[in-house]
Amino acid sequence: MLQSNALKFGDFTLKSGRRSPYFINAGAFDDGRKIATLGAFYAEKISQSITEGKLPSRIDTVFGPAYKGIPLAVSTSIALASMQGMNVGYTFDRKEPKDHGDGGIMVGSPLKDGMKVLLVDDVMTAGTAVREVVPKIKAEADVQIVGLVLSVDRMEKTKDCDLSAVDAVEREFGFPVISIANVREIFDSAKRMVTLDGSRLLTDDVVSAADEYLAKYGA
Q1: 102 has a pLDDT exceeding 60
Q2: Active site residue 100
Q3: What is the DSSP string of 8-36?
Q4: How many CB atoms are located within 10 Å of the residue 180 CB?
Q5: 7-13 and 19-24: which strand pairing?
Q6: Catalytic residue among 98, 112, 159, 191
Q7: Catalytic annotation on 98?
Q8: What is the pLDDT of residue 2?
Q9: Is-contact 123 131, C-beta < 8 A?
Q10: What is the pLDDT of residues 111-156, one digit of tens each?
Q11: pLDDT category, 218, cuts 50, 70, 90?
Q12: Pick the catalytic residue: 15, 45, 95, 100?
């Protein structure tokens, strides 16, 4: 994340409206090597979760919500095939229905009744993207959504209650939400890192701002 500049420190306004001292952007994984590495991490987490019984052994397609979820779905399905021996489809939605050619709102492996669909996304703050895409998927076919895998869980409570966004989504939709890493793990690691000139990666001000933010919004 640091090498790709996907993790930034500063003052950022999130989609939820909250002002955060850090920002995580999977769009920064913007070349073949970076997105292949990220896809491999997703595939490894999925394989591990299947072994642990959190996800079913059968997954028919990996679904990535437009737009940032598109390269995640593609790279994950490639990594599952090449590294885990699992040949699964990939699917993503269009923001607007296509009115020519094959038409429709979905691209990739067609959704059909009875399919087991695994969602992938980059970061969860409030769960807004999940709530937008699940009705789209259900309107397309009678599929079973078996889980959601994230790169990062920001570990924040929702606006409506003290539950974390992850817990709220799990309760609402009944499928597990699994993250490769969470924000506390990321900061614990970053606190021990130094730059090339030997200085600390995180200043005291950044650590203090992050601690204050999580004390206010963390779940």
Answers
A1: no
A2: yes
A3: EEEEEE-TTS-EEEEEE-GGG--SHHHHH
A4: 17
A5: antiparallel
A6: 98
A7: yes
A8: 80
A9: no
A10: 999 999 999 998 877 777 888 899 999 999 999 999 999 999 988 8
A11: confident
A12: 100
